Amino acid sequence: MTGPSTSLATMKVASDLPGGRLHDARCRRAGPEAGIATVAPDLDLAEGQSPGPGGRLVAGRYRLRSLLGRGAMGRVWLAEDEVLDRLVALKQLVLSAQASGTTRKAARWRALEEARAAARVDHLGAVRIHDVVKDYGCPWIVMELLSGRTLAEAVDADGPLPVDQAAAVGLALLDVLQTAHRAGIVHRDVKPANVHLCEDGRVVLTDFGVARALDDPAPVPGGELVGSPAYMAPEQLRGGAAGPASDLFSLGATLFAAVESRAPFVKGDVFATLTAVVEDPPAPFRRAGPLRPVIEGLLAKEPEQRFNADEARTALRGIQRDGEYSRWGARNGPVAPSPGFQPAASRDDR
């Protein structure tokens, strides 16, 4: 059997993939516009730094306070909404100074698609989008500011989640994913770095930047293949369309990472990882316990053989009932694994 299509041979990925950390970078097919993204010098800061006294004002309304984080396709800022007097998160889609008009148009399209996709998912477990604006030559997405940290950050800092907590996270994500699928949206990038464990007990799915409508046949502008290699479903890597079952595969990979502290298929380089996703079984289970059959059911190579959402929910609820943490349930969102913090109760259990 051959590995993934050689059309993936030009994909550009971050250099941290061989280390197997949970922050597996988004990959994209590199074209003539590829290169290191740049921003205006006074906005190119290290995480946590302020953009200067008073902060820069975006779109005449949002005052930048500090840089929260950065990724392959942009930066996220802490900002103050001076009209409504509240703190928000601003996602800046960063463009190369040499980007063509076509690339800039594609970036604007991507920002609007991300905002529209998230807005269609009416659920507390989906990040809320307030606005999309343009300033400093690039699009900005105005989002709710989330407390807590991502699942990737939590596992990297504190180690794997207890099985019961991982089951609660899985139930919360199933809930929001089913809401998205009923709204006709496939997320396509479920992974630990896009799962936010909030201090209020919510589990929030973020970064709808590569989400697509199920009824949208149009290709992504620029011909990009986007996703995170170690968490993408085999059918996506084979060039097939992503559907609800693809998100469930990514959920299985995310739950594996939550309890095993590594992605299930990550190898020494991106192409070995892609081949493993398509052909190989996951890495050995060491800590999953009763979660193992659920993860295996979600990681079936063929979509029709994969656990569906109802099967996964039944299995995860059984784990919760049997576990030490079952009294906390899985509202829309359970626990950020930090000292003294525990998940909220399930709506179904009230």
Task: Set out the fold topology.
Elements: E1 11-12, E2 28-29, E3 57-58, E4 62-71, E5 74-81, E6 86-93, H1 101-120, E7 129-135, E8 138-144, E9 149-150, H2 151-158, H3 163-182, E10 185-186, E11 195-197, E12 203-205, E13 212-213, H4 234-237, H5 244-260, H6 270-279, H7 292-298, H8 309-322
Antiparallel strand pairs: 1-2, 3-4, 4-5, 5-6, 6-8, 7-8, 9-11, 10-13, 11-12
CATH domain class of the largest domain: Mainly Alpha
Number of helices: 8
Main β-sheet description: 6 strands, antiparallel
Quote the CATH topology of the largest domain: Transferase(Phosphotransferase), domain 1
What is the terminal separation in angstroms?
50 Å
Order of helices and strands: EEEEEEHEEEHHEEEEHHHHH
Q: How would you classify the helix and strand content by structural class?
A: alpha+beta
Q: Mean pLDDT across all residues, rounded?
A: 77
Number of domains: 2
Helical fraction: 25-40%
